Amino acid sequence: MMSRLDALKILYKYTENIPVISSCGNTSREWASLGRRDNHLYMVDTMGLTPSVAIGVSLTLRKKGFKKCIGIEGDGGILMNPNSLASASYLNPGKWLLIVFDNECFASTGGQCSLASRIDISRVAEGFNLKAIQTDNVEDFERAVLESIEEEGPIVIHAKISPENHKTSFINDDPAVLAYKFTSFIRDEQ
Ligand SMILES: Cc1ncc(C[n+]2csc(CCOP(=O)(O)OP(=O)(O)O)c2C)c(N)n1
Ligand SMILES: [Mg+2]
Fold it and tell me: How far is the CA of 83 from the centre of ligand 2 (A)?
């Protein structure tokens, strides 16, 4: 099965100029370990909120050149904030692409079992009338990312991943500085 880092490496290839908001814990750490970019907002501690933040950013980007705004969330995070799926469906942000890494556990805090072991997140997204693509290997994940970047959203990629974490360093930057870099990048882009 694909690991979180395998999937992030694929995503990294296609997001040099796409705003990406990554969830807390190991996701942001592994994402940052691939190389920091100002168009990537590394969230610190805000579990479950990347889909919501990405909705807001997607709506502000309607008239900008970016093809998408991507949020990355975990299964634990999305099931803590499923309301973000209802909001995405209702507000219909065309540039919103949510990637849910589903390892059926809270991997970043020790691998405790999450609700996802008994809930199919693709079906939850579809229940909110969102397009959902489920993947469990690198080839399908890459294809889903490439197709979704080109297609009008909102779209959810539900990526099943293995529960392992890769050893990475903590992100100790001031969150205000991380947010400032990200908003400056978006503001300066025509
Ligand atoms: C509101 C809140 N509760 C708990 C935490 C602690 N915490 C950080 S990451 C994490 C696990 C997240 O699980 P999941 O979203 O499935 O991501 P994974 O680590 O499995 O990739 C937890 C419990 C937090 N940061 N915020
Ligand atoms: Mg998880």
Answer: 18
Domain count, the chain: 1
**Ranges under pLDDT 50 in the chain:** none
DSSP secondary structure, 53-74, as one string: HHHHHHHHTTTSS-S-EEEEEE
Which domain CATH number covers 149?
3.40.50.970
- What is the C-alpha to C-alpha distance for residues 156 and 150, in angstroms, rounded to an integer? 14
Query: pLDDT per residue over 145-176, tens digit each?
Result: 999 999 999 999 999 999 999 999 999 999 99
Residue 13 in tokens? 């290839």
Report whether 175 contacts 152 (CB < 8 A).
no
The pLDDT of residue 190 is 61
Strands (E), 85-185: 96-102, 105-106, 112-113, 131-135, 155-160
What domain range includes position 88?
A: 4-188
Q: What is the pLDDT of residue 64?
A: 87
User: Which residues line the pocket of ligand 1, CB cutoff 6 A?
Assistant: 24-27, 45, 47, 74-77, 101, 103, 105-109, 114
DSSP state of 13: H
pLDDT of residue 89: 98
